[in-house]
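Tutorial handout. Part one gives the primary structure; part two gives the three-dimensional structure as tokens.
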Amino acid sequence: MIEWLKSVGQSFYNAWVPERRYMAYFSGLKMTLLISLFAVIIGILIGVLIAVVRVTARASKLKLIKVLDVICRVYITVIRGTPMIVQIMIIYNLVFTSPNTNPVLVGAVCCGINSGAYVAEIIRAGITSIPVGQMEAGRSLGLTYVMTMRTIILPQAFKNILPALGNEFISLVKETSVISVIAVNDLMKMAGYVGSRTWDVIPPYVIAAGIYLLMTLGLTWLMGRFEKMMAKSDRR
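Part two.
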């Protein structure tokens, strides 16, 4: 048993210390965080746009809005119905064909497009949870539809969907691990690189799993704090 523990300890030591291999993990972590941040921004922008279009299409008689609603429905159905890794391979080989493309841009766009479909449905549910009277009150005050949506409906909707939105973003951080298939040097890719140097892939991947776990625990804690702050503001 002691010999086995020594062997395991040596394996993890080899996966972390020699040749400053810990720097490879930090480099991959930096790439993962950057991609996650920009993917969240892209996902929110896409999600808000699609959610507003879909909600507006229910009451609008404009043909353009109806056409956009159909496009949004197809987008959501395709993204939610296909694996993320397949989407990444298609987007990467269809759009980012240049070898000089920024890897952060590639990963952020691929993950953001995927996240946008889920964020759109979350936001749409939040918007529909707001009483219709809120929109009517805004319009009666002379606000346009867009101003009412931006200043009255969306702020309340975001409060309602904050837990679900937080879970989606936490999931997104973990799902960025699949972008290693397109040679982006994220955390998973660097863990694989360390494994190729040590000829033992288990310790590097366990270390990567531990880093992902710490990230998700940290994000969960931050989301919990943010929800408490929002709850305090509601009670005032």
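Part three, for discussion. The radius of gyration is 22 Å. The mean pLDDT is 86.
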